[in-house]
Amino acid sequence: MGRSTTRLPLSSAFWVAILLSVPGTAAAQTSAVAPTHNGVVIKNAVVISHLALDDDVNEATSPITPQMMMIDAFDYQDKAIYRALAGGVTTSLLLHGSANMIGGQSVVIKHKYGANRDAMLFPGAPRSIKFASGENPKRVYGSRDQLPSTRMGNFAVQREALLQAQDYIREWDDYNAKVKRGDRDAKPPKHDLKLEALADILRGKFLVHIHCYRADEFLTEIAMAKEFGYKIRAFHHALEAYKVPEKIAAENIGIATFADWWGYKQEAWDAIPWNAVMSMRKGVRVAIKSDSDDFARRLNQEAAKTMHYGGATEDEALKMITLNAAWIIGVDDRVGSIDVGKDADLVIWDGYPLSSYGVPSKVLIDGDVYFDRSLPHYGMPHYSEGQ
349 has which bridge partners? Predict the structure, then answer.
């Protein structure tokens, strides 16, 4: 595995960036070094989205499905992986969809298009899981006249599931205590994949990612996390974060938000394009996401919008698609910046990366070139037809 032996600071001459795209959930990393005399830039991007999951992104048969594993739906041959790679994305966090209050377990991949499936998996990436609140769960299940059909129902379902997890933990703790005392008659509780996953949330074994738009729901989710003792890693979409940024920052919760999406659903009516920078100025760790396979290829341009809306600096804008995204995924010790000991995931840019005119000319992952714009056959040195 290729590792970096060079440390590059953030400054007007050196940029470090990670591209992040989120609606399902995929994360891609891009480290960047700004133009010298020839306009070439090195950069690696990290993204969060539903890339490479086809129609399997939501197990919409129950509002609580933490036992689902997105690796089982991961299509490593999806062309969207290549397109994101060619756009400078090297790493993605693939999340369950937002139909369920508690959805499935995520998978983190590197965009080694042309490699086999297992070679694409990000080694040692922390486990993460997707929650969702608001319109989506209540619409999905309310349209079937089942619980939940309101925001009250959403959180009642979530709380009930977490209470069941507490009972499950207690049963196993009681059993293990009996075994430790030498009780030969002790009978183990029945194993349950759903309850085991919920228990691992309470044990702190997952990074919790929550699809959430409204300010009131941020506060409810924070209160419930405190009630049950788990930590929230990030709110996704988070279009009303600007209303309560101090509350979010105080809990060390990041946000993965859009640059300027607005008005496409009721929860998005109060969205403003200054959200990212306003939240960042109050101490929130902010990443820009795509929620789209297409936007995932152009996160550099999405990040650039924060310079227009809010006055983010170049370094701050690039950080929203690199290091901050990597932190949200839990892999910032490996990717998101060019530093000693980090993975050699790099993007060489032809032109200014915060511009629609800048394009990646080469993309390296773990020190190997996986995209080279100068090569024939779409610049894929590791891809073989029919593989």
Answer: 41, 360
